[in-house]
Design goal:
Layout: H1 13-27, E1 44-49, H2 55-66, E2 70-75, H3 87-96, E3 101-106, H4 111-117, E4 124-130, H5 136-149, E5 162-166, H6 173-184, E6 188-192, E7 208-210, H7 213-216, E8 222-225, H8 241-248, H9 252-255, E9 263-265, H10 278-281, H11 288-307, E10 311-312, E11 315-316
Parallel strand pairs: 1-2, 1-3, 3-4, 5-6, 5-8, 6-7, 8-9
Antiparallel strand pairs: 10-11
Helix pairs in contact: 1-5, 1-11, 2-11, 5-6, 5-11
């Protein structure tokens, strides 16, 4: 049976907690002189990136290398994709080369699901961001970061925590994956955005909507700022950048309205001066760099659980539950 991570909605509460707890164990490695585990020795992982990426791509690569996998980086630029090769033929080529897992980022929403449902590939498919659809490992690393800061309850989920996500929700796969995962973990999500940057049908999502950032800040435990994704826009969604920043941007004065324990998050890349000022981005409350570090541990956990490695550095441990993170197919 295939094992994939295509959508955050595929993760039950137990699946999500297993990934987060495994990531917590694996995070201890980053403090050691030798950061590698032999777990995926002899397994081949392909990073198939059809869209630009800095953090996600490097972080998957570091995670794969720390687990001793053989890593192949394939980017659409410079490959036969630019000569018109289809996703199917690309996948069949990777299968012929014996890929055990494919980490895919694609501009088309649904591309990872297409791969996961096909018989073109026999290995695991991990969605590293597809169009405006989903980015499940980003949601996992965000939840991991929140759990570390917001004192989880005894069940170690995020029950009762209030998360506010601000900005270009319409084009954000990060927002979509987060709303699924955070709800599964018991958090309450509020979206703040101009009406033009909210998707149609948002009333059906398990979240609240507000157009007034200032009124939501005092009730927020984690504030997630999103970039305005100009590359996905074909029209004007707000009058001017200045107007957008004034109403939906975060500066030092606004940040002071958050409760003392609250954190400011951003998936990156940040556009300083637009959705976040340099003062906020560089403040100790902003977890953007920590999120990147946590991304490595979380992606190691996902690979470990999907590919079924069972040996930690210090010798054999409990076998991992390899059936835990998979799509309902
Ligand atoms: C995001 C993405 O690519 O979806 N970044 C990321 O993966 N860390 C968000 C964005 O591009 O703004």
């Amino acid at each position: 049976m295939k094992r994939h991570l295509v959508s955050a909605a595929d993760l039950s509460r137990d699946d999500a907690l297993l990934v987060l707890d495994t990531a917590e164990e694996l995070a201890q490695l980053s403090g050691r002189a030798v950061k590698k585990l032999p777990t995926l020795r002899g397994r081949t992982v392909v990073n198939l990136f059809f869209e630009d990426s800095t953090r996600t791509k490097t972080s998957f690569e570091v995670a794969e290398k720390r687990l001793s996998a053989d890593v192949i980086n394939f980017s659409a630029k410079g490959s036969s994709v630019s000569k018109g090769e289809s996703l199917k033929d690309t996948a069949l080529t990777l299968q012929a080369m014996g890929a055990d897992a494919v980490v895919i980022r694609h501009h088309a929403s649904g591309a990872p699901a297409r791969l996961a449902q096909s018989d073109w590939l026999h290995g695991s498919v991990i969605n590293a961001g597809d169009g405006t659809h989903e980015h499940p490992t980003q949601a996992l690393l965000d939840a991991f970061t929140m759990r570390r800061h917001l004192n989880p309850g005894s069940g170690k989920d995020l029950a009762g925590r209030r998360v506010t996500i601000v900005g270009d929700i319409l084009h954000s796969r990060v927002a979509r994956s987060n709303v699924h995962l955070l709800t599964t973990l018991g958090a309450q999500v509020t979206f703040v955005a101009p009406p033009t940057l909210l998707p149609i049908g948002i009333e059906q999502w398990p979240c609240e909507i507000s157009y007034d950032l200032d009124s939501v800040l005092p009730k927020t435990d984690a504030l997630m700022m999103l970039r305005v994704q100009r590359e996905r826009m074909n029209a004007a969604f707000f009058p001017t950048e200045r107007e957008y920043s004034r109403r939906y941007g975060l500066d030092g004065v606004r940040m002071a309205q958050l409760p003392e324990h609250a954190i400011v998050m951003h998936p990156g890349p940040m556009v300083r001066g637009m959705e976040i000022t340099a003062e906020v981005a560089d403040s100790p409350r902003c977890t953007v760099v920590e999120q990147v570090a946590n991304g490595v541990s979380v992606r190691m956990a996902v690979l470990y659980l999907l590919l079924g490695g069972a040996v930690f550095a210090d010798g054999p441990t409990e076998p991992a539950r390899t059936d835990s993170v998979e799509t309902a197919q």
